[in-house]
Amino acid sequence: MVSVMLGYVGIVMAMVFFGSNFVIVKKFDSGDGVFFQLWMCMGIWTVGLVVNLIQGSPKFWPLAMAGGALWATGNVLCVYVIQQIGMGLGLVIWGSMAMLVGWFTGFFGLFGLQKDELAVVWLNVLGLGFALASLLTSFKVKVTHQPTEQDPNANNGEGFVVLPGSEQDSEAKLASVQGEYNNFGHVVTGPSQLTSPFSDDNNNPPHSSNNDANAAKANKLWGIVCALCAGFFFGNNFDPPTYIQQHNCHQDNKCLEEYRGASSDPLDYVFAHFCGILLMAMLIFFAYCIVKRNNPWVSPQICLPAYLSGMMWALGQVGWFMANASLGYTVAFPLAVIGPGIIGSMW
Length: 347
Fold this sequence. Notes:
By secondary structure, this protein is mainly α. The chain contains 11 helices and 2 strands.
């Protein structure tokens, strides 16, 4: 009973922090999302370090890093998805995919994990159906932003950082606009930067063949594919640490010698998971800098908000770890995917 209660406490944490972490950054321009993600992941890693110290520095399992790398990869894919198919359709696709992957993994015991034990199977399936329906309705929601006053002479192009004290500093501040966020509390893009973070702007003429109907269809197809991939990564990001927990030879768990004696406490894998997030975010940013020819979009104003947003997101992820271990994927995933949207709508 105590374990179940802790699981629902974890769900509440996921709902509150995933649904609120965007509040402190929504007034800042997030650019194309890559620089924001890097600082956000630094905040995530900091929370992981604190959890690791609280847990007494348990053994570090490198396999758990793979889950974090999956999440960071899916998160950066969302930027491209928004550019190609829009926020509404993108959220429905990757949210539904993440929830279904997580639910099917727990229900059928996929990827070597144990099946969840459900007291009332039909009720759980019905709940999944309602959760999917709520995601589909989000596609019809239209978000409006109040226009911000801008200097007509301000540069609305790339939005590169202007050094403090320069003549254009005040204009750059006025050009900052509100970003867009999804139900998982991930930043996905800023409306002033609806360009792919990995496109070389110097090689793209203003009127390229992408405006043709065939190119538009191809771009939409790729956007859908990337949304499915992002959802698949989100839905599997807990699998590596869960695999270790369920193969540690404890009690009724399966037994693999390389994981014999591994901890059954999900919080003991948070730090390794978050190390994978930060490492992948760094690799993505390095690749981004190469593609941009060492001329990336950066902004000093977004650093602290992104860092704090990452810390809040990390607390939500810690709660999700707790919920997965206590309630199982089949219960935790629908609640953790849908719940933040309810909290976010209150803001």
